[in-house]
Amino acid sequence: MHQRPPLTPLAEALPSTVPFVGPENQERQRGSAFRARLGANESGFGPAPSVIEAMAQAAGDMWKYCDPDNFDLKAALARHLAIPARNIVIGEGIDGLLGLAVRLYAGPGDVVVTSLGAYPTFNFHVAGFGARLVTVPYRNDREDLDGLADAVKREGARVVYLSNPDNPMGTWWEAADIEAFVAAIPETTLILLDEAYGETGPVSAQPSIDFSRPNLVRLRTFSKAYGLAGLRCGYAFGDAEVIRGFEKVRNHYGINKMAQVAAEAALADQDYLRWVVARVAAGRERIAGIARDNGLAPLASATNFVTIDCGSDGAFALRVLQGMLSRGVFIRKPIAPVLDRCIRVSVGPEEELAIFEEELPKALEDARG
Amino acid sequence: MHQRPPLTPLAEALPSTVPFVGPENQERQRGSAFRARLGANESGFGPAPSVIEAMAQAAGDMWKYCDPDNFDLKAALARHLAIPARNIVIGEGIDGLLGLAVRLYAGPGDVVVTSLGAYPTFNFHVAGFGARLVTVPYRNDREDLDGLADAVKREGARVVYLSNPDNPMGTWWEAADIEAFVAAIPETTLILLDEAYGETGPVSAQPSIDFSRPNLVRLRTFSKAYGLAGLRCGYAFGDAEVIRGFEKVRNHYGINKMAQVAAEAALADQDYLRWVVARVAAGRERIAGIARDNGLAPLASATNFVTIDCGSDGAFALRVLQGMLSRGVFIRKPIAPVLDRCIRVSVGPEEELAIFEEELPKALEDARG
């Protein structure tokens, strides 16, 4: 019998289980494909035709390593955001950037604050670097800005995470509220403002961009409205010196070249983005209507999904979820207390929403059993 | 004046400079594209036509997140390697997997052993997690197996890195030597055996695959012979429990879907791989011949590049390198003492090697100046 090499104490303490279950895994378990893929907040409308064409054209170039500086994509984003390129860092999705930020700012035992039931991948990173997560409950299905700020100050947090618009609830705060929150956070605490759903929300929910607060890092992605979740490309922007700190630890050749090509092409096709955003807004109405037709209460949403209050407890909503999954409709649900009374349905093409409409009453009937 | 949030002490101590300079950066500096791209050990022969077609077909699907289990690709690799899927982990290139391995096994102050002048990205990860790097000089342009094993034992190293075939020298050890090395390393030390160039080397340089030594993790990639460097996809295989440990810290949605599709298609087209490998072997002969025609000494190579002894010191080889770069020929050179007397030239298509052949005498003449 051979020994195994010892993990670091930090790594030894982490679970080896896969924390995230993808729809493909569920399809393998059930032995057939889902009829509707409405659970991962992807954009079922797909990337722009111009972006698909750019990818096809670039396929033969994939023998080349990516440009580790991400120069062209950063330049395109700088033009798009009207900020200098030095204020931008590209990452392997917001997921990758969140991991780097936690690694840079929160060591073992340091406190990190988030909302109870917010993005689980962020929590995975916090645990992975040995920091201590402090959670603040949602209030009226929104992230509790005052509660988060209080927790930051009480605990001396090194990092605080906030998503606006919010996942998994779809709710949002207006820019003035976000600005007041930022002002309330000590300058020594890094604020990670996740704006993955920024494009589908009201413009009034986005603070204007300035770098007066060096501790504010805002994160956006090509995974949602731009329809490129599979390519893993996000970006962060903020104070130039804070942004430069990511150079210390990022995988310099980590952004795949196809993502560089596709993201740049996607930025160039704002007409398509506007078309998608309009479809998302219409899809939210459609989902909300289906919910109301079934006696449920859809939450107002600024994202590409609608969270629906099933009107009872978490156990009931879980039965609804399971009923939908068993009928081939991939959706998800929040898991934290109170939020867990809801299911979460991503906007998708009408064919898939029609399947959702057809199956929801049956799942509800079974759940009421 | 606002404060900045403090980095962790470990992050604070790391440099913020970009450690890796890509050819695109050099092209921007010089104001024109390179005429020949022979410096990054990419495969200028490109991906297989079947793989390019698979990428083009998959472009429209990029709105979906990847399967976080990498199920299909792992299954394909399991068939290819004739091992169970549970012994395999997929990563964002070997680069990404090396970072995860260091993170799992080497904490602040722990010793990690590598060769002086070996893969710099590995060293970047070691520094990034605060471990202490101990280097062993090459011996006769090969990694010094006895020296590495001695250093591991003397220093109580937690991790040792070895590439076979070697980058940047192109040299290699036979399987029996590697096996003896593995047997000489304590079971409590993780061995990272980087086989990025495995496909282009002699089969006799690859130990047969068994998992009798849980501390041996072997790493391979789709970046080299398979011609997919831009997609960032590598894999590691070894003891199932050691492999499962990567689940603790990997970015579960980190492998882009295009890489999953392309890598699976590439594995399915072994005819193309054989064609590339034959081209690489012929290209090595071609580069070696050019070197000899110019009075230089090419090293025997098992990789997709040839390292050429310029017959003098590091300063001379640097002048040769600079002369080639200024003539539009992108090549690189080793930087560690003794090795630095060489330049390193990747195999590429004949058009590019012809440019190399044309420019080398001029660069040599200038360097001798």
Automatic annotation (TrEMBL), chains A, B:
Its EC number is 2.6.1.9. It comes from the Bacteria. PROSITE patterns: AA_TRANSFER_CLASS_2. One of its GO terms (biological process) is L-histidine biosynthetic process. One of its GO terms (molecular function) is pyridoxal phosphate binding. Pathway: Amino-acid biosynthesis; L-histidine biosynthesis; L-histidine from 5-phospho-alpha-D-ribose 1-diphosphate: step 7/9. SUPFAM superfamilies: PLP-dependent transferases (SSF53383). It catalyses: L-histidinol phosphate + 2-oxoglutarate = 3-(imidazol-4-yl)-2-oxopropyl phosphate + L-glutamate. Residues 38-355 form the Aminotransferase class I/classII large domain. Its cofactor is pyridoxal 5'-phosphate. Keywords: Amino-acid biosynthesis, Aminotransferase, Histidine biosynthesis, Pyridoxal phosphate, Transferase. Transmembrane segments: none annotated. It holds the Pfam family Aminotran_1_2. The keyword Transferase applies. InterPro entries: Aminotrans_II_pyridoxalP_BS (IPR001917), Aminotransferase_I/II_large (IPR004839), HistidinolP_aminotransfase (IPR050106), PyrdxlP-dep_Trfase (IPR015424), PyrdxlP-dep_Trfase_major (IPR015421), PyrdxlP-dep_Trfase_small (IPR015422). Gene3D superfamilies: Aspartate Aminotransferase, domain 1, Type I PLP-dependent aspartate aminotransferase-like (Major domain). Belongs to the class-II pyridoxal-phosphate-dependent aminotransferase family. Histidinol-phosphate aminotransferase subfamily. This is histidinol-phosphate transaminase.
